[in-house]
Amino acid sequence: MSDLKDRRPDQDAPPNTRSSPGNRLGRDRRPRVSDLLFVLVLVAGCAHPPLSPTREEVHRVVLWVDAFSTAGGDGSSAHPLKAVPQPVPTGVTIYLRSGLYPGPFVLGAGTRIEGSGEVVLTGEAGQTVITATNATLEGLSIQGGAIGLEAGLGVVVTRVHFSGQRAQAALVHGELKLSDSTFEASVEGIDGVRVEPRAALIASGVKFQGGFKRAVVSDQGRLELRGVSGEGTKTLVNATGSSSVLFDLHAARGSGPALFFSGGKVSITGAEVTGHEYTVLLFRGTDATISGLRARGAVQACVSAIESKLSLSDSSLTGCGPAGAVTLQHAQTTLTKVEITSARELGVLVKNGTLRLEGVRISKVTAAPDQSGGDALHVRDEAVVNGTGELTLSDLGGSGLFATTWSKVTLGSLTVERARSSALFLEREAQLRVETLLVRGGSGPALVVTERATAQLGSLSVAGGNELPVFADCQAGAKVTLGRLESTVQQLPSGCVTLPSTK
Hints:
Layout: H1 2-12, H2 21-29, H3 32-47, E1 61-65, E2 92-102, E3 105-107, E4 112-123, E5 128-132, E6 136-144, E7 147-151, E8 155-163, E9 168-172, E10 175-179, E11 182-185, E12 191-195, E13 200-204, E14 207-210, E15 214-219, E16 222-226, E17 229-231, E18 235-254, E19 259-275, E20 278-283, E21 287-296, E22 301-306, E23 309-318, E24 324-329, E25 332-344, E26 346-351, E27 354-358, E28 361-366, E29 375-380, E30 384-388, E31 390-396, E32 401-403, E33 408-419, E34 424-426, E35 431-440, E36 445-449, E37 454-463, E38 468-472, E39 479-482, E40 485-487, E41 497-498
Parallel strand pairs: 1-2, 2-4, 3-5, 4-6, 5-7, 6-8, 7-9, 8-10, 8-11, 9-12, 10-13, 11-14, 12-15, 13-16, 14-17, 15-18, 16-18, 17-18, 18-19, 19-20, 19-21, 20-22, 21-23, 22-24, 23-25, 24-26, 25-27, 25-28, 26-29, 27-30, 28-31, 29-32, 30-33, 31-33, 32-34, 33-35, 34-36, 35-37, 36-38, 37-39, ...
């Protein structure tokens, strides 16, 4: 109260100077509302929660472990632990120095294990060496166990070597991001990485070595693979009902189909396969888009599609087996800028289904010893083939085109060179329409039509080697219509061959 009394006269008096108490108190008397607002704003600002700390500001627990250290360490770099603590702490970074560390290990909630030197995590028969969710592994080896790694959601694996597993190297339940790692099949016939329904594998720079039955197998999962390779694996990728996006794949010396898909959607950009039973095998409902495929030496067929949809472009197929460089059954297929060479017995086989051709070249198709065959394009069983642009077929043990059993073929510009049999052979009610056909250096008739088959050619040019431009079996119901004929050999008269213009 005395303080208040002492201040009252000062408040009543007029201010003397700006710095005088009277001036200060007199000012407080009138603009009191502004000061109150200032206090309220200050309090409101303090009421907001503090900003979240940045990642660098968060203090992360770090443990050092050295299998060759003495017991009793505190986990620091200078005094490391001798073994990985069990259970493994969550949210901790563990640095492992060279050594052997027996599992099993369960990792989760931000745990990170990083190896330096020769770091090996091991498991006994029947065990899963590492079970991980939201965890990171880097720079180590996972050895032994029935399963090397079981991955839930958010698992990142970098520079990890898998070997010695008895059932499969890795099993993915959630999402595994895998890079710069190697899988070695110490036991023949196991799977490398298995992706379960609704799970995902995102892999880059991964190598599979040895006798894996399937390096990557997915059942209704999702695959994103880039730069994945297999050496000696039976199958590099086996996917059923999955979504697969694949880049820059390499496979060699395998005994099964290198890339197998049954159902689902597939995109392949860049793949190089040497050997294997099939380079690509599509089965029942697969929708595949493939570009930049380089296939060599497939034992059966380079590309086979059964009851599937296929678009193949900018690809080369060399040394494919007797089932055909491209074998299509009940498939809807487009081949664009595809080159086939050195095929055994068949270039492209089409049974039922549809095929569109654009800019395709087929050469050096040979028959088996002492057997007929070696057709570049073999069409049968109600198949429908349409071609645009230039189609070139050359150096053939059989015919350039063999069409039979109600098949329909419509082509733009076709060149057939050095076909051992007729350039084109039609039978059993096959139908052919060609705008321009050039036949050079073959033997036998350039065109053979029999058994109620029909052919319509806008222009036919025969330049040496062939016995006859056209042979048509009129008694068997064959019919041929030529818009223009240029030939070095004379066409014999035939009641079922129409020649509007002959030179």
